[in-house]
Design goal:
alpha/beta, globular, Rossmann fold, binds 3'-phosphate-adenosine-5'-phosphate sulfate, four-stranded parallel β-sheet
Amino acid sequence: MSSVPYLTHKGIFFPAVASYTEEYLRYVENEFQLMDDDVVNVTYPKSGTNWMAEILSLIRKDGDPTWVRNVFLWDRVPWFETATSQSTILNYTPPRFMSSHLPFQLFPKSFLRSKAKVIYTVRNPKDVLVSFFHFSNSFKILKDPGNMQDFMDTFLRGDVIYGSWFDHVKGWLAMKDMPNFFLITYEELQQDLRGSVERICRFLGKELTSQQIDSVVENASFETMKNNKMSNFTQVPNDMMDHSKGKLMRKGKSGTWKSCLTVAQNEHFDRVYQENMRGVTVTFPWD
Ligand code: PPS
């Protein structure tokens, strides 16, 4: 396995590249001011972040796809924990739509004093594992995952960027009864994208016509996003991503873990899941 180093901040790994620094992560947690009209797309990695960013971009523009076809996704819904996004965020015309993979304990403290809205998308962790495994082979700022068994062990220990899936999800679920927090799953987006878009619009207080919602659904579909170079990561520089080894828009399906994990791996995963999720009252589509 390669030894790409990681930055460790408060026990959580981050890519060791210029955009992540301890100083900036401390600034984000303690000084970054969320505004009441901010909307933050929060996820654990590989859970549908870019999909939700595309949906939100389209909702923001009332279904008009011009913005998503002409501006990079990371400029439309910038990641606020990366120092390199700071100027985009400072120059963003409100309401700001931003993304974050931060666990709750590292999220801006100002959130608790604001009415900023968080949309938290969760995905079946077995599909997250598989998606993360493949992405780690192509995204050069991530450690070489080794084989699936190696990576499953690493993932279940939480020794991946942004920490343990279990801690991330349980940390954010503490917010589930707050009026400015919206919980949705990747699987719900898959099963009923239109209904999900309608629910997201209601949460955002945004009224779209039926045709505008049709346009959001059509332009946020896997096929359309896969062909949109502003959203599909094909324009990520080669020094960061080896495009011959993988892509962001890989399968876009639920349940692909079934053909990737052995029976024994699946049983082990289930045991670790049960232990870690004991006491969690939310029922997910995969439970
Ligand atoms: S990242 O790198 O953490 O920001 O990745 P993230 O965007 O969270 O997750 C990538 C997975 O989301 C899938 N994806 C989609 N699925 C269905 N429809 C649409 N429109 C869509 N857009 C992205 C993408 O294919 C990755 O999942 P896998 O299982 O690897 O295909």
